[in-house]
Amino acid sequence: MSIFSTKKSWINLTIWVLIIAFIIAAPSLLPVFRLNLLGRYLSLAIVALGVDLIWGFTGMLSLGQGIFFALGGYCAAMFLQLNTAGEFPNGIPEFFGLYGVEKLPFFWEPFKSSIFTLISIWLLPAIIAGLLGYLVFRNRIKGVYFSILTQAALLVFFNFFNGQQKLINGTNGLKTDVTQLFGQMVGSEIMQRWFFWISAILVILAWFFARWIVRDRFGNVLIGIRDDEARVRFTGYNPVIFKTIIFSIAGGLAGISGALYTVQSGIVSPQFMTVPFSIEMVIWVAVGGRGTLLGAILGAVLINYAKSLVSEALPASWMFIQGGLFILVVTALPEGVLGWIRKDGLKKLLFLIGINKKLETYPSLEVNEQGEVKS
Amino acid sequence: MQLILESLFNGVAIGSVLLVAALGLAIVFGLMGVINLAHGELMMLGAYSTYITQLIFKQVSFLKPFYDSYVIVAIGIAFLVSGTVGILLERTVIRRLYGSPLETLLATWGVSLILQQFVRSVPLAYGSGLVISLFFGLFAPLFISDELLQGAKGKLIRASTWGVSALLGVATGGVLSSLVSKLSRASARNVDVTAPSWMRGGIDFVGITFPKTRLLIILITLISVLVVIFFLDKTAWGMRIRAVTQNRPMSDCLGISTETVDIITFGIGSGLAGVAGVAVSLLGSVGPNVGGNYIVGCFMVVVLGGVGNLLGTILASFSIGIMTDLIGAGRLLTIWPEMPSPIYSTIDFFATTSMARVMIFALIVIFLQFRPTGMFPQKGRMVES
Prior knowledge:
Helix content of chain B: over 70%
Strand content of chain B: under 5%
Helix content of chain A: 55-70%
Number of helices of chain B: 15
Structural class of chain A: mainly alpha
Radius of gyration of chain B: 22 Å
Order of helices and strands of chain A: HHHHHHHEEEHHHHEHHHHH
Oligomer: heterodimer
Radius of gyration of chain A: 24 Å
Strand content of chain A: under 5%
Order of helices and strands of chain B: HHHHHHEEHHHHHHHHH
Shape of chain A: globular
Largest interface: A-B, 44 and 44 residues
Number of helices of chain A: 16
Distance between the termini of chain A: 51 Å
Number of strands of chain B: 2
Distance between the termini of chain B: 44 Å
Largest sheet of chain A: 2 strands, antiparallel
């Protein structure tokens, strides 16, 4: 039994070849500005995958993924700042001078090591998510209460990072585009090309990872929690453990995403922890299709692309469109676009326009408008 | 002693803004399990109503002598404006989403985005015209006898009331924009509400100055709470609301129109947001984002206070208010200067308004470890509660 034995596998293979070809060729196809945007949106797709895991599969709506996203970004930015700091007075990043800080705060120290940074980018957000999640889930706080608490936590982190100038440069955030890595400016064209490729590869890896999770027995329990948590508990599973693990995985994914986004946008700031940004992450998943991993990726990339196109043309209208999207997707398309297509949505649409005829399953029982059975 | 009194007063003042804002949220949440993320924007509409009322009183000649009392008129107008928009929101969006609170949360967020952009890009005069046409369009059918609204003729009458209200709205918009030039252009800038002369300054009492605006806000809150308690406890509709809060299917079976109860509750909850908006407009400048500053505080009040109990809401908002003042303004350090140094330095670290929020959130999460459903949880034997 070869995996290429069926027709479907051949289609899948062709799609993969096309995707990989596009990723390799993209830097020469797209102008630098667009390539950079695409790279950023691909990195956002990773956080969207995390949101899909906790919301689409486990049914917990977190409005605080921005915390973990920003934490990952800060980890990366701190490393990059330290990597370049040798040229500055006291050997510490430049901004410290503005606030009269002469000694590096203690928690910056480990970020001098690249290995520590690479690990902490995903591990630190995952640990914090796990802790926060455990404290909340342990008390069976769920539903809207959970959403509100995550939102409040987001605001708390925002206030903390915004207010601590002497520790992490407060409102101004940490710049990365003028720092150096491997002797190159991070903001340079060649580095950005590499970051694009890394983002694309990581999106694919994250997709495989998420798919592996949800297709396993673990994933079945998650879906069970989404559909009826009490019953899962009565069957002998402890939902707290599953919820904590998946929330911490989503946090880790958000951290990776944040780090990639930071190096490509050139700055990390408390703006990553604002309330609207975190809710936007949910809408990418909602539009793409909650509970479908591909939908999360497509939603993140396409909506952000649409956002940048619309904002370039008509800046004021994006808020209306976004607001409308929120309302439309929950009232009319609760499964998202991909979920709708998978549920024969296209056929229904074709039927509505009158291209496909409605199939009459039991012609003898079809009822006409007056309620009489057609002969 | 004076310090403690002053701190208490400030805490109560902060808490009463929170309370009047969270009151509406708590009632709606208790009844329908719906978190309305557009609540902050309904507050924003209330604040803008105050601003518009003030300008009208300033510009229109026959209202000028009554300028000093515009705040009181504004409270009523804000209640009606936010209530109308809230009812429209309930009828068009939230109605479709009962039973799925998370979806409601997202949809109301969408509404809040639209409302924010609306005040930015639509001239306030025409915005108020739109609200007026909505108001008459929604409420006019209530005053026409039911017989007239039946059948094909009824449809015509309904359509014509909407037509008339639309005309009325356009007319109001036109008149307003010609009367008050400030309202005729769209602007994203923040506006300021100036308090009338009798509200400026403060009252001196045992050596402390109490600012009059704060006192007025406390008064507004007190009256709103009393009215809400009276309405819920003493009127027929209040009883129906309580019944539906306790057991929706049972009330439905007993002939209570849960649909009407939902509309009334949502209207009152949103109207209270408008009243909160008046209070907010007296404290600082008014902008499209003004609601966002308060909304998370309101959520914390609801989470801390528990659902379906006004006492919980009241206690929670005052304790959050007092804590904010004690920690945020660093007053705890002044009251008790000789506290042990590790605690002193910790509290000193949190002694700004934004850091106080950090600390209060931590305290709330700790509190929820012991009382997961808030101070006064609803009693019941349901697995899901």
